Amino acid sequence: MSLLENNGRALNMKNVNNKAGISILEVVVAGFILLLAIIPIYKSLTAQTSSEIETTKIAMAKDVLKSLRQEIMARTFDEVTSIVSNPLAQPYPLTLDKVLKIQKEFQNFDLAVVASFTDVAKKVAQFTGTVTWKNNKGLEKKETLTFIQISQK
Q: What angle do CA 100, 101, 106 make, to 5 degrees?
């Protein structure tokens, strides 16, 4: 064996000629293991995002229904009576109607309002607002709010 002197150390020639590195097989195996680790992480992140979108849509639907209730409750009972008596009357103001059109276009929202009197004397008006939308899987979801307005006369 021949020895060389390198900064005061002896080197073996056999070790100098050996090349350290990784083979293509090791790269493929490492890539496969990395892929196996990334797939569950990706699925977890996409499921979380989908859940957040659904939660946001539910909150938006509740906000639309609360706004509808506030708009109707802000009216006098006589105005409400004209809305309930005329099924073609719009139970919410035009500004809310414009908001609903935008939400329907971009968020798949649709609002349906059913109004009726709950008594013969027509002193209690009941409103049921239902917001429907489709979730990411294409299933229809609903959020409903029912409230009444009572005549003070």
A: 95
